Amino acid sequence: MRKPIRKAILPVAGLGTRFLPATKAVPKEMLTVVDRPVVQHVVDEARAAGIEHIVFVTGRNKAVIEDHFDRQFELERTLQERGKLKELEQLDRDTPKAGTTSFTRQQLPLGLGHAVWCARDIIGDEPFALLLPDMLHMAKDGKGCLASMVEAYDETGGNVLAVYEVPEDQAFQYGIVGTGAVHGKAHAITQMVEKPKPGTAPSNLAISGRYILQPTIFDLLAKQGQGAGGEIQLTDSMLKLKESEPFYAVTFDGAIYDCGSKIGFLMANVAYALSRPDIEDEFRVALGQVLERK
Ligand code: G1P
Asked: Is 237 within the bounds of a domain?
């Protein structure tokens, strides 16, 4: 039996400079895609994959994320009094139960590898999931990216990364993997490089921001020096871990929206609105009207 994936890390310490002035007082993870904050969509994906405990690696000015995932007694009572039971039920479903979230601060913006390392004590000695909240994964089968990865992990064990194809001239913005032998729904990863120089990428398969990792990564992260962009890069420690443990890539079947970029965020809003049965038809008409006006 594989050790189950019970805990997930969500790094939410980033400053969101690409979204100023919106992110001056509001964390970028709290910007809404339709009527749910970006971070809530990612928590939904984690919970759909069976994750029981979420570790948020936060920073200054991010306290509102903790409030968002707490119960709101006054609001609940007001909804109850006004008979808004549907809204009340939705709030109840969205709010994690007491003791199933943790918050720790990264303190300094030293990179993704450092953010993950900050969660080491809370994760302990068990494999875990890591979800980068900027990247919204809209799966074709509706199952969720992490849920498919957990299925693959149940067969392969080891470490599992979700990947997707990016245009070759954009590979320098991502972690890129090279792949080999097939293992059920996954491919063995043979190479990994963070932000390859143009023309040097081993493939066009980018790490999409969803990971299942073994806790042995933490010791490597503790010793990891600076990499691409002068940051402590998770990919560099994964590369070291690959010397002793297998890594597998699962190709994500669906659309990915990078909500850290303006265009990605706007596309996500359109795509998620069009996938919502309650507003889809009305929104399609409204969108047509806006495009006509231009
Ligand atoms: C991070 C990872 C990179 C991955 C990317 C996905 O980079 O380091 O490997 O491909 O997320 O968004 P960042 O976007 O933080 O520069």
From this structure: yes
Domain contains 2: no
* Å from CA of 211 to ligand 1 middle: 11
How many separate domains does the chain show? 1
Q: Is 112 in the pocket of ligand 1 (CB under 6 A)?
A: yes
- Residue-wise pLDDT tens digits, 2-16: 899 999 999 999 988
Task: State the average pLDDT for the chain.
Answer: 95
Mean pLDDT of 194-213: 95
pLDDT above 90: residue 142: no
Measured by CA distance, the residue closest to atom 5 of ligand 1 is 174
Asked whether 135 lines ligand 1 (CB < 6 A), one says yes
The residue whose CA has the least distance to atom 15 of ligand 1 is 112
User: What whole-number distance in Å separates Cα of residue 78 and Cα of residue 294?
Assistant: 42
Q: What is the CATH number of the domain that holds 26?
A: 3.90.550.10
Pocket test for ligand 1, best of 110, 112, 193, 232 (most atoms within 8 A of CB): 112
Q: Report the pLDDT averaged over residues 174-197.
A: 93
Cβ(236) to ligand 1 under 6 A? no
Ligand 1: does its nearest atom lie under 6 Å from the Cβ of 13? Answer: no
Domain residues for the domain of 103 are 7-293
**How many other C-beta atoms are found inside a 10 Å radius of the C-beta of residue 86?**
9
In this structure, is residue 93 part of a structural domain? yes
The reply to whether 61 falls in a domain is yes
Residue by residue, what is the 3-state secondary structure of 27-87? Answer: CHHHCEECCEEHHHHHHHHHHHCCCCEEEEEECCCCHHHHHHCCCCHHHHHHHHHCCCHHH
